Amino acid sequence: MQRLRWLLGLVAAALAFGAGAQDYPARPVKIIVPFAAGGPADVYARFLAQRLQDAMAQPFVVEDRPGAGSVVGTEAVAKSAPDGYTLLLMSNTHTVNESLMPQKPFQLMRDFAAVAPINYSDLVLVVNPEVNAKSLPELIALAKAQPGKLNYASSGPGTPYHMAGELFKAMAGLDIVHVPYKESSGARTGVLGGQVEMMFDAVTVMNEHVKAGKVRALATSGKVRSTVMPDVPTLAEAGVPGYDAVIWLGLMAPKNTPASIVARLNAEVTKIVARPDVQAEWAKQGAVPMTMTPAVFDRYLADDIVKWERIVKISGARVDR
To answer: What residues contact residue 125 under an 8 Å CB cut-off, 6+ apart?
Structure first.
């Protein structure tokens, strides 16, 4: 009789576990983006939210909550109920911040559950047209001739734009000054207006400014040339061997969110990024879809934390730079 009760309890638990995913979502879901509007995270959060809403028949609402290098919005998600109704649109800013900001009020792998990756894209190193450098070797020579004189913009400490610049400084042996803005749009405007000489920016956002001649593209950051900028060499090709830095995006939930809900979200996101029309649209922008199970994405995050911990140490990057 005891064994029968145990088996019945096990069956009931399994049915309840499955029901959580079947009933989810029963009300609107919020996706918090801890970055400012207009950047890649905001753009792709809204892209994904619309398609999740279509697939799951409930509103998916994007809320931009920037501040403190992504800490403000991320902390809000960490403190949310683990019920699948508050999600985090995150990037490799978060894996960098594990070593760059060790005193923040949360830990990524302790306080969040991996849901699904979304996509990645190369960065492009651009300079204002007034800068006397038409190639990466010329920029490196200019920076070495004027140590501490040239500036590079970023959207804040720990962001891919910041770390790409720090990695460039370390690998090319340069003394250039980091100018952190509160958001990527401000950094972009600074370079376009000539207040700052250069920046690393996502090709998905900066490509239109390059085409318009508002900035000069000197190199892209990936291992191979960007499909949307095939005439622009990679940094590795143009004078910084071994350089590789991209921006990627993913979705996480508060820790202890039911595994059935995480699995459901993962399945829906995977379906979306695997759609031929989505892949074709993203290819035109320079974004490459990423698909992983929650377990594989969890390992990917852990490995990325280790990778950027090494780079933070090598570069000497600090949050006050």
So the answer is: 136, 139, 164, 168, 198, 199, 200, 217, 218, 219, 220, 221, 235
| Higher pLDDT pick, 69 / 252 | 252
Whole-prediction pTM: 0.84
- DSSP codes of every residue in 172-195: HT---EEEE-SSHHHHHHHHHTTS
More confident residue, 5 or 261: 261
CA–CA dist 97, 200 (Å, integer): 18
Residues 6+ apart with CB under 8 A from 226: 122, 124, 203, 220, 232, 286
191 vs 127: CA distance, rounded Å: 7
Residue 5: exposure state from Cβ atoms within 10 A (0-12, 13-18, ≥19): exposed
Distance CA 209, CA 192 (A): 8
pLDDT band at 296 (very low <50, low <70, confident <90, very high): very high
Q: What is the pLDDT of residues 174-218, one digit of tens each?
A: 999 999 998 888 999 999 999 999 999 999 999 999 999 999 999
Residues of the chain with CATH 3.40.190.150: 2-120+247-315
Tell me the CATH number for domain 2-120+247-315: 3.40.190.150
Q: Which residues, including other chains, have CB under 8 Å from residue 154's CB and lie 6 or more apart? A: 161, 162, 165, 178, 179, 180, 181, 187, 199, 200
* pLDDT tens per residue across span 11-48: 444 444 444 567 999 999 999 999 988 889 999 999 99
H or E stretch at 218: strand 216-220
Domain 122-238, what fold?
Answer: D-Maltodextrin-Binding Protein; domain 2 (3.40.190)
